[in-house]
Specification:
The chain is mainly α and 302 residues long. The N terminus is likely disordered. The chain is globular and about 65 Å long. The protein is built from 15 helices and 3 strands. It has a 3-stranded antiparallel sheet. It folds into 2 domains: 229 residues, Orthogonal Bundle (Endonuclease III, domain 1), CATH 1.10.340.30; 56 residues, Arc Repressor Mutant, subunit A (Orthogonal Bundle), CATH 1.10.10. The chain binds a DNA duplex (11 and 11 nucleotides) through helix 3, helix 4, helix 7, helix 9 and helix 10. InterPro entries: DNA_glycosylase, Endonuclease3_FeS-loop_motif, HhH-GPD_domain, HhH_base_excis_C, MIG/MutY.
DNA sequence: GAACCGTGGTG
DNA sequence: TCACCAAGGTT
């Protein structure tokens, strides 16, 4: 197989990745044997755009409270949003709750192992579906996150950054996966891990990189292909900030609703405040009734 | 494909 | 200080 890869002009990335991962993999909760598909799924939801160090304590608390999808599905969405606390992007909490309901209703309470079935769940996209299938069930698929895309862009394509996610990324990853599913899973995890701790966006640690010898980007003298991502919108004064402030009030008061007029009443921009509340209601993250605002599914007294 | 969606750590 | 960044997904 190695000869075949070289004939195609592809260096063997799998072998050094597996060796490096064996020595350097972090001991993360969801990598423990027997962590379970539900635990893996919850961890993947939480890890969507939230750093590992912030996720770990929340993950433990979540699984302690809701050890199964059915347990979560039996609770109100409001409780999911409240338990989510300050992890950010609270719609993920809502989506995770919806996914739990779907798992209960469509899959008898068992997290599906089929990628298409996973993709059909709320809040699960290309990355998460494959991550669950591969890391929880040992299926053989390419798992491509932003770390992996950066690693492949550099090592294979010689670019400092990757463009937007595409089918090509999955194909590129497939090309370096070993045949055996267990090995393929390790390569998937190793590529992500390498991107997370060595081949980082800002200051890559090429001195300790197991792929340095074969890295096209390094060989080309680290060109800055900077087809970079769009600048993240300013947070201060943003709608996101306003929404976050509203939701924090609701979380802190829950299960009690809050007088609508008192929700971030001192917000500098009253129009923005109103729009934030309306958009949260539209998103299903809040409910208004009788002049009171609450998290979704917390019945308003009276 | 671009815009949008939270929050906190960091160089 | 502040812009960047973080195991994405949906619209």
């Amino acid at each position: 197989m190695l000869a075949e890869l070289r004939l195609n002009g592809m260096p063997d990335l799998a072998t050094p990745l597996i060796a490096w991962y064996g020595e350097n993999a972090r001991d993360l909760p969801w990598r423990r044997p027997g962590f379970g598909a539900w635990g893996v799924l919850v961890s993947e939801f939480m890890l969507q755009q939230t750093p590992v160090t912030r996720v770990i304590p929340h993950l433990q608390a979540w699984l302690m409270r809701w050890p199964t999808p059915t347990a979560l599905a039996a609770d109100a969405p409001a409780e999911a949003v409240r338990q989510w606390a300050n992890l950010g992007y609270p719609r993920r909490a809502l989506w995770l709750h919806r996914a739990a309901v779907e798992i209960r209703d469509r899959h008898s309470g068992v997290v599906p192992r089929d990628v298409d079935a996973l993709l059909a769940l709320t809040g699960i996209g290309d990355y998460t579906a494959r991550a669950v299938a591969v890391f929880a069930y040992g299926e053989r698929h390419p798992v491509v996150d932003t770390n992996t895309r950066r690693v492949l862009s550099r090592a294979v394509d010689g670019r400092s950054q990757s463009g937007s996610p595409s089918r090509r990324d999955l194909d590129a990853m497939t090309r370096i996966l070993p045949e055996h599913p267990a090995d393929a899973a390790i390569v998937n995890a190793a590529a992500m891990e390498l991107g997370a701790v060595v081949c980082t966006a800002r200051a890559p640690k090429c001195k300790v990189c197991p792929l340095a010898d074969q890295c096209a980007w390094r060989a080309a003298g680290y060109p800055d292909t900077g087809d970079g991502r769009r600048r993240q919108a300013r947070y201060e004064g943003s709608n996101r900030q306003a929404r976050g402030a509203v939701l924090k009030v609701l979380r802190d008061a829950a299960p009690q609703p809050v007088d609508l007029a008192q929700v971030i009443a001192d917000w500098p921009d009253a129009l923005q405040r109103d729009r934030a509340i309306d958009s949260l209601i539209a998103d299903g993250l809040a409910e208004a009734s009788g002049g009171l605002l609450s998290l979704p599914g917390h019945r308003v007294a009276g």
